[in-house]
Amino acid sequence: MNNVARLIAAIFIIGSCACGSIPKAGPVSTQEVSPKKRIEIPSAKKAIKTQPRLELPAITDSEDIVTHIGFTASYNHETLIPNWVAYELTREEVNGSEKGDESFQWDPDIKGRQAWREDYARSGWDKGHMIPRADLKWSAKAYSESFYFSNVCPQDPAFNTGSWRTTESMGRRLAKQYGSVFIVCGPLVFDNKYGTLGEHKVVIPDAFFKAFLICVNGEYSAIGIIMDNIPEKQNLKQCAMSVDEVEDKCGLDLFHDLDISIQSAVESRINWKMWGI
């Protein structure tokens, strides 16, 4: 092979490698891709995990659903934030001590538009976890997956480390107390008073919801919480409401797999003595 041929071959190899590499900051493809509902895959975190998946809301055909070992999410390719994130947290998992990669990155199981790290840069808004990394210390892989943008929303920094954190602590406390808690949470966009951030126009939520479901001695209880995306401290009890009230705000059918014979009673009232707030 002469020198010219060697040069051409080297350029071809280098070009192929460069085109084939995928940065960790964004989606595999920036092309518009019509979201499709994925086949629901049972969580792999425990072989004994039972069906139905009580943490899940009702899922529509238009949603792009992704299931990781620690959580399930519905991702919105228009707002570039999740519609909701759902998971079960157990007493054993709360006691985990594993940690993994802490770099925010595109979710490799989502094809289509996602937020970019650069969208958040110098924006004044945090990359707020829906399922907190502290809930996923039972697995280094699960911990790392919490940094996927399928689990991230823009949050006021003081809210992220203050009021929102109190809801996260509440989840871990309930898991320790009752052995298991089903949790679903997500953003609420009402007037979109904060607009968007970054070149890709990531929608900034006006508020966030979280709902908890527990089972004690065969009886289910549930509670919902809605907090504004603001720096001022918010009280858990003052932000608490029935799951029915949360559903009215978020437009979702939460805890959809709860037996229909008890769903209305469980979601319409709060048994305050169960929640410690």
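the 2nd protein, sequnce then structure:
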Amino acid sequence: MQRIRLKFGRDSRLKFISHLDMMRAWQRVFNRAGLKLVYSEGFSPHPKFTIAAPLPVGVTSDAEFAEIFLEQPMTPHGVMAALSRELPPGLSLSQVFVVGLGEPSIQASLRHAEYAVKVEPEMGLDTVKASMDKLLGLETLSWEHRRDDQVKHYDLRALIDDVWLIESTAEYHVLGMRLRADVSGSGRPEQVTRALGFSQPPLDIHRTRLIMEQV
């Protein structure tokens, strides 16, 4: 058995598919590429395939990670070649490497996610910078998230590691964000823009980096 980690991207052509559909798309790629994945045991066996952090609908990325377990060892180049031939439009594969079987799981190793978030220029540049400084200066920020008839209360500030300005034009601002993304909680870029004072949802959200714990 061999453990392989994949780094992949999803562009705007696939931005509106769900995490479950993304999992299904990858399984079709594995099948067509002829890769024999290891299956779990039990009454409902499933391939040992894990994506580090589900990408929300509407978000693009070039920095996603996934892991697969192969029945028979292959070289990273061989895996890259086999998968690349079967990728659908909108899905890209940039890196393949071997991971030790005894290392922590990809989900347990994940710590932060970085984003480039494009927003409408509702506020001037100085106001945006001041709002960022104010947000980062807070110790806590009580927040509630409503979904259907449920309301979740939590500290949004605890999910924000850093916020900065990437670009500013007359048509938009692009904000950089490093948000927590671990087993205890994940920050959402659209909530951060609201906390900064933007009334409209982001024009575009692109995940640029996933940060793993160094072991």
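The chain has two domains: 2-103, 111-212. Residues 2-103 form a domain with the Alpha-Beta Plaits fold (CATH 3.30.70.580).
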